[in-house]
Specification:
The complex is a heterodimer of chains A (280) and B (258).
Chain A: H1 2-19, H2 31-41, H3 51-66, H4 73-89, H5 94-104, H6 111-124, H7 129-142, H8 146-158, H9 166-175, H10 180-193, H11 197-230, H12 238-242, E1 258-260, E2 266-268
Chain B: H1 3-17, H2 20-40, H3 48-71, H4 74-80, H5 83-89, H6 94-127, H7 136-159, H8 164-190, H9 194-206, H10 216-220, H11 231-253
Helix pairs in contact in B: 1-6, 2-3, 2-6, 3-6, 3-7, 6-7, 6-11, 7-8, 7-11, 8-9
Classes of the chains: A mainly alpha (280), B mainly alpha (258).
Chain lengths: 280, 258
């Protein structure tokens, strides 16, 4: 009897495997269920006292999306939806707003969504200097709004617990254009402040991308100077050093190498796409 | 005085605590509480909040299942087994019988809820080994327990005049409505019709408001560390339960067992 039961169980598992549609995608697979959860989140008492559990389950879904190394536009859309939904269930959950600002801000097309989420975070956590700081960063580097960025950074500086160097950073925001060096100094501060290893990994990845962009912009300026002096683009990057324009060819922080093509266009062999928000 | 009620309560406690279904539900609840640590590892930020959130949700969900499905059979089972004749032939007033049955189940639920809260507290403390523990878990569990007591009283009330199946449907409906009364008030006010607004208000104030027992969110953020939070909800629960049980006693006193 027992053996027969085990055999039937095995048979049902095989049938289930056969009928399974394959690995679940986090994008657009569960449309109807998603719509229901989103609708419930707009009236959280419909969660029947399980608002926090719902917030956590949606949050876990958001992390699965955010954890991908590269996100497609559809995945950014889904991430924004999940973070909004989780925040509807539990507006006290501060990490939702920080993650939203951080990851959605990576996509120039989703900068406004990142900002909207951070604004919600600020309304719910007016005492959190980190949310004001992230708001300033998003305004300044993602949306190019220096004045708003400086104001948010100045607000962050006035809050208890904020580091003493924030007023200086706010002043820099007001006075400088979008510059990778400034972005890097902000990211270094964020990295020093961050204790959570997962958010730290995102910040470090971001800092690496900004550093590559900084090097590429330096190389482009050097190529322009070389072209102006010699009437042609250099054949290789060491030529810029030999001509005395560069002290040395920078080493890419992600372990890749910088290269130059025949038309004088510089690029990194690791990062195919430029960080659009900082391209001038 | 009240010895009859206490005897019925003690007997109901013994009977329900030996219920095998109760242990099956409890075992499943403890399994889910244990599993929350694996889910927490998928998160980032404050990982331990997932343990508290999902653990308290388990206590709530399985507590409601126990309160409803044991509560609805409290009185009807005695009638089906004819044991009610033996009890009521003794000098036990009918109202003492009804109150004793509800009290016995509340004692069982109190013990089970406390046990689940202790397990969750230990799982949470183990997960955050070396860091501060969260006593708010017990405050949130006390809130859940008050909701279960109210549902038990409602289940007892329904079981005095209808079948177990209908009692279950009515009690679960009360659970659903009890958590969305604020929405009904809101939608009633938005409808523009004075009758709908009045109905929304009537529902809001007359039907049980179970959201006032919900301390899960404040517990997660360390804002539920004082038992004084429970005083007004306790007064509400006692008042509402008294009303429901009095109605149950009136209906049961007039019941004809022939």
């Amino acid at each position: 009897m027992l053996i027969a039961a085990v055999l039937f169980l095995g048979a049902s598992a095989l049938i289930s495997l056969r009928l399974s549609p394959g690995p679940m995608s986090w994008v657009g697979e569960n449309g109807a269920a998603d719509n229901l959860v989103v609708a419930i989140s707009r009236h959280p008492s419909l969660a029947l006292g399980f608002q926090n559990a719902c917030a956590d389950l949606v949050w876990l879904g958001a992390i699965q999306v955010a954890g991908n190394r590269t996100l497609s536009p559809a995945e950014y859309d889904r991430l924004a939806l999940l973070l909004d939904t989780a925040a509807n269930f539990d507006p006290r959950f501060e990490t939702i707003f920080l993650l939203g600002g951080l990851v959605l801000g990576e996509s120039p097309a989703h900068g406004r969504r990142a900002l909207a989420l951070l604004e919600r975070g600020r309304a719910n956590h007016p005492e959190s200097w980190q949310i004001h700081f992230y708001l300033g960063f998003t305004h300044y580097f993602i949306l190019g709004q220096a004045a708003e960025g400086g104001r948010a950074m100045a607000d962050a500086a006035r809050l208890p617990g904020s580091p003493g160097y924030l007023p200086g950073l706010a002043a820099r925001m007001f006075s400088e254009g979008r510059d990778p060096e400034t972005a890097l100094s902000f990211l270094e501060i964020m990295i020093r402040q961050e204790k959570d290893p997962s958010r730290l990994a995102i910040l470090e990845r971001r800092a690496g991308e900004v550093a590559v962009e900084r090097d590429l912009q330096r190389l482009e300026r050097a190529v322009d100077a070389y072209r102006a002096a010699n009437g042609r683009a250099p054949a290789s990057l060491p030529e810029l050093v030999r001509a005395g324009i560069l002290a040395r060819v920078p080493v890419a922080p992600d372990g890749g190498a910088y290269q130059i093509d025949q038309e004088g266009k510089v690029s990194s062999d690791r990062s195919r796409n430029r960080l659009k928000v900082l391209v001038k | 005085m009240l010895t009859g009620m206490l005897s019925v309560a003690a007997n109901t406690f013994r009977e329900t605590i030996r219920n095998k279904i109760l242990y099956a539900i409890l075992a499943f609840a403890l399994f889910v509480i244990g599993m929350t640590t694996f889910l927490a590892n998928l998160s980032f930020g404050d990982l331990a909040r997932v343990v508290v959130d999902l653990g308290l949700a388990s206590i709530h969900l399985f507590g409601v299942v126990m309160a409803v499905f044991i509560g609805i059979t409290l009185v009807s089972q005695e009638i089906d087994r004819k044991t009610v004749y033996i009890i009521l032939s003794k000098p036990v007033p009918r109202w003492e019988f009804v109150l004793g049955k509800a009290l016995g189940l509340c004692a069982t639920l109190g013990l089970i809820t406390f046990f689940m809260a202790v397990v969750l507290y230990l799982v949470h403390a183990g997960y955050r080994y070396g860091q501060t523990t969260e006593p708010g878990i017990f405050v949130a569990a006390a809130g859940i327990y008050m909701e279960l007591v109210l549902l038990t009283c409602l289940a007892s009330f329904f079981s005095t005049f209808t079948t177990p199946v209908l009692s279950a449907i009515f009690t679960l409906s009360m659970f659903l409505i009890g958590h969305i009364t604020r929405e009904l008030l809101f939608f009633g006010g938005k409808s523009g019709s004075p009758a709908a607004a009045w109905l929304g208000k009537a529902i809001y104030y007359l039907l049980p408001n179970l959201e006032i027992f919900n301390f899960k969110n404040v517990a997660v953020y360390g804002l539920a560390r004082s038992a004084s939070l429970l005083l007004l909800p306790l007064a509400y629960m006692l008042s509402y339960c008294a009303a429901v049980l009095l109605l149950a006693c009136v209906i049961f006193s007039r019941k004809d067992f022939k």
